[in-house]
Design goal:
Blueprint lengths: L1 E8 L5 H7 L3 H12 L6 E6 L3 E8 L2 H16 L3 H7 L5 H12 L11 H15 L5 H20 L9 H13 L6 E5 L3 H12 L4 E5 L3 H10 L3 E3 L4 H4 L5 E4 L10 H10 L5 E5 L16 E5 L11 H57 L4 H29 L5 H12 L5 H6 L11
Parallel strand pairs: 4-5, 4-7, 5-6, 7-8, 8-9
Antiparallel strand pairs: 1-3, 2-3
Helix pairs in contact: 5-7, 5-13, 6-7, 7-13, 8-9, 13-14, 13-15, 14-15
Length: 439
């Protein structure tokens, strides 16, 4: 069994490309059905955040599996082969596993060591389980990844003094508007990210918080938590007259704030500064609004430029994190490789014993009466010859177990020796244990 990965992130593609492939929660079911209907894919888990869209898949055929993943991106977002080659990564099996372990540990995040990604990986895994889209191999992979994410944060200081999107928003707001005291912030989208950002702004002097959401009840709940005021979506336009900061993070697939709705209101401010922080992917705020005097728009990619005073400290901790990941990766690779290799090795050894016993019995029949010592010597010699003949294939098979060719080598050995073992069945029921089962 092989683990495939296809995706793009903030390092490989700008937000205007990433937003084309952002898969909303409401679209996950359709995506899982797409992969579930393809025989080349055994299981799928989709990880989608504002900074990445990654599809992890289990397959028995690498080439066919990768074709399915590439075709999905072409169908879903209309990417051609040139765009796939430019923005996407499709690593080999081992590198795909390593990538997930680094992602969940915060080593591949825009903000080194950030903690939100661990929760996002958990949610992705849970969604796949609920959709019955995963399989035993991917279950083991994500349980292991979640275990590693916790272990890295427990045994290193990678998440100590880490910046969050909320902290970055405060820093950017301060740079753009100066003193934040008595400023008014309008939060569009009643999700966790918007609330965290609003709380950070309030901790730095913002006094008035307005919350708007497609569901007014959710907006009201969040407003109560922030001692703010809920407004309906159709009231956003008039509230922009007094707002100093807008934080938008909805799950909409289109611009929520666009010129045909708010341009007149923003122009009526006559150049009074307003900072719009768009942390949604796809983006909520039409960049064209920035042409209006006083309007400054920052999207998720603009957060990368913020100076992080504690970066060097966390960078040192990341070295220890990489060591933990390497150790856990080696263990997982051995388990994954064993799914197809161990049954073949066992069958090969049994096959060798059977041939040895048959030939030794023939030899004794021809020799007639032999002493006990002679019998022991003959048995020992026959077994030693068999072991030496099989040693090379077994050692090489173990070495190839974790590679992309492991399954092919196992099948080759099976066919060469005529072994009675079903590799396809044995790989399906592999079981793997982590320290806390990823809970």
């Amino acid at each position: 069994m092989y683990i495939l990965l296809a995706g793009l992130n903030h390092r490989t593609a700008p937000v205007e490309i990433r937003e084309k492939l952002a898969i909303a929660d409401s679209e996950l079911g359709k995506a899982y059905k797409y992969f579930g209907a393809n025989e080349a894919i055994e299981g799928t888990i989709i990880l989608t955040t504002c900074n990445r869209t990654e599809i992890y898949a289990a397959t028995r055929n690498i080439d066919e599996g990768q074709k399915v993943l590439r075709q999905y991106f072409r169908d879903y977002a209309g990417f051609d082969e040139a765009a796939l080659d430019k923005y996407f990564y499709l690593p080999n099996c081992n590198d795909a596993i390593l990538h997930l372990f680094r992602v969940v540990s915060g080593l591949d995040s825009m903000i080194l060591g950030e903690t939100e990604i661990l929760g996002q990986v958990k949610e992705a895994y849970q969604h796949a389980i609920e959709a019955e889209a995963s399989d035993n191999v991917l279950n083991a992979l994500f349980q292991k990844a979640i275990y590693i994410g916790k272990k890295v944060r427990t045994e290193t200081e990678i998440d100590q003094h880490s910046l969050s999107v909320g902290h970055v928003a405060v820093q950017l707001a301060g740079e753009a508007l100066g003193n934040l005291a008595d400023k008014t912030v309008l939060v569009i989208g009643a999700g966790r990210m918007g609330e965290i950002t609003a709380r950070n702004l309030m901790a730095n002097g913002v006094k008035t918080v307005l919350v708007s959401n497609r569901s007014y009840d959710k907006a009201a709940d969040m407003a109560r938590n922030l001692n703010g005021r809920a407004i309906r979506l159709d009231q956003i336009t008039e509230e922009l007259t007094a707002a100093d900061i807008v934080i938008s993070c909805t799950g909409a697939s289109h611009y929520v704030i666009r010129p045909d709705r708010v341009a007149d209101i923003l122009e009526s401010r006559q150049g009074k500064p307003i900072l719009m922080i768009d942390i949604a992917v796809p983006r909520d705020i039409d960049p064209a609004l920035q042409e209006i005097a006083g309007v400054q728009i920052l999207d998720i990619d603009d957060l990368q430029g913020v100076v992080d005073a504690n970066y060097e400290q966390r960078l040192k901790a990341s070295i220890a994190a990489e060591d933990i990941i390497r150790q856990e990766l080696e263990e997982f690779d051995q388990w994954l490789g064993s799914l197809c290799v161990v049954p073949v090795i066992t069958a090969l050894q049994e096959h060798g014993k059977m041939i040895t016993n048959i030939e030794v019995k023939k030899a004794f029949n021809k020799l007639g009466t032999v002493t006990e010592q002679e019998e022991r010597i003959i048995n020992s010699m026959a077994q030693a010859i068999t072991n030496q003949l099989l040693k090379g294939p077994i050692v090489n098979l173990k070495q190839m177990a974790a590679s992309d060719e492991g399954h092919s080598y196992a099948k080759m050995v099976k066919n060469l020796f005529g072994l009675d073992v079903n590799i396809e069945e044995t790989t399906e029921f592999g079981n793997y244990k982590t320290g806390d089962q990823g809970q």
